[in-house]
Write a structure and sequence with these properties.
The chain has about 725 residues and is an alpha/beta fold. It contains 23 helices and 27 strands. Strands 5, 7, 8, 9, 23, 24, 25, 26 and 27 form a 9-stranded mixed beta sheet that branches. Strands 16-15-14-17-19 form a 5-stranded mixed beta sheet, with helices on both faces. A 3-stranded antiparallel beta sheet has the order 1-2-3, with no helix packed on it. A hairpin with a 2-residue loop joins strand 2 and strand 3. Helix 13 crosses helix 14. The longest helix is centred in the first third of the chain and has 20 residues. Belongs to the REXO1/REXO3 family. Its main location: nucleus.
Length: about 725
């Protein structure tokens, strides 16, 4: 059956990984360390010497130290050899401890866990919410993201067969902050459900962890950038760092048609509705442009497709006419902007249209420092908005694609609707998610290594032709590199890169020359579902792509122990491992199956007929309880096989996002219908009132209520 087959396969993978590492032993640097020799001459007898030093016995008072044995003498002075890994009873064994005296006034967040890693292994600031003891003694750090867990599961007597999610009041907070809401909860084995009792053997506390998000806009941000992107140090913060090619990156030439925004994206981002975007029916038949608006002559979206026989081989434009558009606006009323300049640039960089436009209403503010428009420029102009609309309708047809940056604003100024849009603010999304957008100036610095809009804030203002050509070059670069290129870049430094650049070793692990800490770099591994090389994990020293949690478990152990030949994973393993387990996430319905294709992108496992039969037979044990039991055993096996002095972190990333996702989809549908010309509020299929808005805010609190566990092996 499906389950049994997967289970045995996972056991074989783990067993093989464990067997591979049975004979491994810790590598010892013997360059400046000699090994005791029972036949060595006694004190006072002559011994062989070299120019680099000589050997002598330690003093009797050193016998109580962990470093018994020979010492190296350099220039007449003794230098201690590398310290042994301390035993758990040693006074210098590392630890991460919580105290009620800690400076903790709110929930820690995902970035707090990232900063803890950077403090232990690199140049991060010291945490105020925990005490880190004997930092130099930490040998490794393993951090595992396990979406699907929530705090309500860790209550004794919970009926998992009836469990549907955390109670709504779990995330409610009112009045003054209560320490009970953000202090860690002590884990007591006898007070936990049996399937989750292994957590008490690994961790002293359960930590409430706040997921990244935006309460104002009702948005939950991805926890991945929060963990895997580190803020730039102050000495590196001057200027934007140009994007660098990830390890093993391969360009994937991409047609521009693959970069087109779909109807849902256009409506969600406030683009004007074109009738071709509507489904055939009454609404489309009765479509009427708002007063003063026009739409391009496109009857159906299929009219834009070009037969393959007409497409030049290797062409990224796919036979389409591509124009970059940028407009400048001036203020003509309260919160009202009117078109004063339009620039249209063809794919080859030639300027198709560049016109000043006189608004119908008097200009209140020319906003010259941004628009570059002055009264002297506009006074002699006779061109109107209607003139520009007529010219654009002659230029743009079914095979025309408009591209630009935040193009919805330009189209609203033009009072023009067109269904084929490529927007650089969507192609290069903000790391914290919508509604935030990255500026065109930043994108040019980051991805083109180019300075634009130098006149911004001065009387020179922006140049709309320069901005249009910048958008054009960004899209050309995207077509050359591939759709995934630049999509995961954020305003910071990749965590794996930071550890490789600033990872710090100390005397206990790197010898006398590392006294006080030396930036020697730390090796790392990313173990995840799907193709890790096309994610933020591509910057790790080692990437291990998986198709199941069993493979993730084996990958973690392999990364920690190392390969016997050291060809892929260095002998002795890497210093830092980040991994993600996803089977619980898929079972809980936290994994959005609509955004991933399982075969291509490491999507959630499909439920086979065999698994369905097994679930029907196992009616006495819920699938959730079975999955949690497997997860607990899996994490415990990893913990048991970690070397001493290893920090072990498990976190969920988010809380339960299901109700939030349902309400967000409902809100998006409401906006889509409400913004459709000719629609009537009382005839919409969904309604969005203050009641739904408050429900979304509460669901967001639940979605942002993650948990985490911190321990030391």
């Amino acid at each position: 059956m499906g389950k049994k087959k997967n289970k045995s396969k996972g056991q074989r993978g783990v067993a093989a990984a464990l067997a591979t590492f049975q004979g491994d032993s810790m590598a010892i640097d013997t360059e400046n360390t000699s090994i005791q020799n029972p036949t060595a001459p006694a004190d006072g007898e002559s011994t062989p010497t070299t120019s680099s030093g000589s050997l002598k016995r330690p003093c009797p008072e050193d016998d109580n130290e962990d470093d018994g044995g020979w010492q190296t003498i350099e220039n007449g002075r003794p230098v201690k050899k590398l310290k042994k890994i301390p035993g758990q009873e040693s006074k210098r064994y590392p630890g991460i401890h919580f105290s009620t005296q800690a400076r903790l006034f709110s929930k820690i967040n995902v970035s707090s866990l990232r900063d803890l890693i950077l403090y232990i292994f690199a140049d991060g600031p010291a945490p105020q919410w925990v005490s880190v003891k004997h930092r130099p003694e930490f040998r490794k750090i393993v951090a595992i993201m396990v979406p699907g867990l929530d705090e309500a599961m860790f209550k004794k007597g919970l009926d998992f067969s009836a469990y549907t999610g955390p109670p709504p009041d779990q995330a409610i907070s009112g009045g003054a902050p209560d320490p009970n809401e953000y202090y860690p909860r002590e884990l007591k084995k006898e007070l936990l459900p049996e399937v989750l009792q292994p957590f008490a053997d690994m961790f002293p506390h359960l930590w409430p962890v706040k997921a990244p998000g935006d309460d104002k806009y009702g948005k939950l941000h991805s926890p991945m950038p929060a963990m895997l992107t580190a803020p730039l140090p102050k000495n590196k913060g001057a200027g934007v760092q140009p994007v660098s090619e990830p390890n093993g990156w391969k360009n994937q030439r991409t047609r521009i048609t693959e970069l087109l925004a779909n109807n849902e994206e256009l409506m969600e981002n406030g683009f004007p509705v074109h009738p071709a975007m509507l489904k055939p029916g009454e609404k489309r038949d009765k479509f009427k442009d708002p007063e003063g608006w026009v739409h391009t002559r496109v009857e159906n979206l299929e009219d834009g497709k070009v037969p393959e026989g007409e497409v030049q081989q290797g062409s990224v434009t796919a036979g389409r006419e591509v124009y970059a558009l940028d407009c400048e606006m001036c203020v003509t009323g309260e919160a009202e902007y009117s078109l004063t300049r339009i620039s249209l640039v063809a794919w080859d960089g030639s300027v198709v249209l560049d016109e000043l436009v006189k608004p119908d209403k008097p200009i209140i503010d020319y906003v010259t420092r941004f628009s570059g428009i002055t009264k002297e420029m506009i006074d002699p102009v006779n061109t109107t908005l209607k003139d520009i609309q007529a010219r654009l309708l002659d230029i743009l047809g079914p095979r025309s694609i408009l591209l630009g940056h935040s193009l919805d604003s330009d189209l609203k100024a033009l009072k023009l609707a067109h269904p084929f849009i490529v927007d650089t603010s969507l192609l290069f999304p903000h790391p914290r998610g919508p509604p935030l957008k990255q500026s065109l100036k930043y994108l040019a610095q980051k991805f083109l290594n180019r300075e634009v809009q130098k006149g911004g804030g001065t009387n020179a203002g922006h140049d709309s032709i320069e901005d249009a050509k910048t958008c054009l070059d960004l899209v050309k670069r995207k077509c050359e590199k591939g759709k995934a290129w630049g999509a995961g870049e954020s305003q910071g430094e990749n965590l794996f890169k930071r550890l490789a650049r600033a990872g710090t070793a100390y005397r206990s692990t790197a010898g006398p020359e590392a006294t006080g800490g030396a930036p020697v770099g730390k090796s790392s591994a990313a173990v995840d579902w799907g193709d890790v090389s096309r994610s933020a994990g591509n910057a790790a020293t080692v990437t291990i792509s998986c198709k199941s949690d069993a493979e993730v478990e084996a990958g973690i152990l392999r990364a920690v122990k190392g390969d016997p030949d050291g060809l892929e994973v260095p002998g002795g393993g890497v210093d830092f491992v980040w991994a993600r387990m996803r089977e619980l996430e898929a079972l809980q319905g936290w994994w959005n199956r609509n955004k991933l294709v399982p075969e291509d992108a490491g999507g959630p496992p499909a439920v086979t007929d065999g698994e369905k039969e097994e679930e029907e037979k196992e009616d006495t044990v819920s699938p959730l309880e079975t999955c949690l039991k497997t997860l607990g055993e899996r994490l415990k096996r990893i913990y048991d096989n970690l070397p001493p002095c290893t920090a072990f972190i498990v976190y969920t990333g988010t809380g339960d996002p299901r109700e939030m996702s349902r309400l967000q989809a409902m809100q998006a549908q409401f906006k889509k219908e409400y913004n459709t010309p000719g629609s009537k509020w009382d005839q919409l299929s969904v309604q969005w009132t203050d009641r739904e808005d408050q429900a979304l805010r509460q669901a967001l609190k639940v979605a942002r209520s993650g948990i985490g566990f911190i321990g030391v092996k």
